[in-house]
Design goal:
It contains eight helices and no strands. With 290 residues, it is an all-alpha fold.
């Protein structure tokens, strides 16, 4: 159902942006009907997937790590895109200091701007490490269990930038896609961090799949449709810079493939080796009996 949410979201969102969005006024030409469908139908499918992941009897245990080509490629790709975007923003800020002009609205608030630049730089490097680990099958989190906190910090910085500077559309659906999609990306990064670090494997896996379903339903279709229309020469006032959207799309695509491989590889273990129940503690001895 999560993959169905992704497919429905992509198709409907592309239709909205190509045929029912007025790029001059920022309003929908069909009264918002198709836009609401692009929000609700994938959301319902993601909700159904969340129910399946949380259904009674479903148990999760330890996460199995294996070599994987596609997640490794996406990890490398997202790492390079994040690093490139960090360098581009830093260079743009130097131009901003000289001319007062910048393609990034966040440059007007240096604290937010540099937090995002630094987070993009560090997260990009971590993604390269993760890509190498997925290529070799090694576990980079054994010696540094909180390594993927870099992704969580980037997710926080990205959500702040989106909320402060780009959630200003006159249409509710557009603001919902941008903010809630970024929030779903952040939550997925948080539970990916917990899963990779070995903290509460069972709970982290379940919550990663739930957040991942909404990531597939809303964030990936929103970013992919925007970038597609940019390639066709269409953009609108207040749209996020292409570098922001490409960075987020690459990170989201990596998480989408990562959660699928984690589910596929670990499912047999989860079914045959359910997580152990915590041992019941012996009640304290009765002082009178002692």
């Amino acid at each position: 159902m999560a993959l169905g949410a992704l497919a429905a979201g992509l198709v409907l969102r592309v239709i909205v942006m190509l045929f029912f969005y007025d790029y001059d006024t920022g309003f929908y030409t069909d009264g918002g009907l198709t836009a609401w469908l692009s929000l609700l139908l994938p959301g319902l499918a993601a909700g159904g997937a969340a129910w399946l992941f949380c259904r009674t009897g479903q148990s999760y245990g330890r996460y199995v790590r294996k070599k994987h080509g596609l997640p490794a490629i996406l990890a490398f790709l997202s790492g390079f895109v994040l690093l490139q975007e960090a360098v581009r923003q830093a260079m743009d800020f130097q131009s901003f200091l000289k001319t007062g002009l910048s393609q990034y609205d966040a440059a007007m608030q240096p604290l937010i701007f540099w937090f995002f630049v630094a987070a993009s730089l560090v997260f990009g490097l971590v993604q390269l490490v993760v890509g190498a680990a997925l290529t070799t099958g090694r576990n980079p989190f054994r010696g540094a269990p909180l390594l993927y906190m870099a992704g969580v910090l980037w997710g926080i910085s990205y959500l702040i930038v989106v909320y402060v500077f780009y959630a200003k559309s006159s249409c509710f659906v557009e603001n919902f896609f941008s903010v809630v999609g970024a929030a779903a990306l952040l939550v997925a990064l948080l539970y990916a961090c917990k899963l990779c670090s070995g903290v509460d494997d069972a709970g982290a896996a379940q919550r990663l799949f739930v957040a991942g379903g909404f990531l597939l339903a809303w964030e990936i279709p929103y970013l992919a449709a925007n970038l597609l229309t940019r390639l066709l020469g269409k953009s609108y006032s207040g749209e996020q810079p292409a570098g922001y959207q490409l960075s987020a799309l690459c990170a989201a695509a990596f998480l989408g493939v990562f959660l699928w491989t984690a589910y596929r590889d670990s499912r047999e273990v989860w079914e045959t080796e359910p997580p152990a129940e915590p041992e019941a503690q012996e009640p304290p001895a009765d002082p009178e009996e002692a």
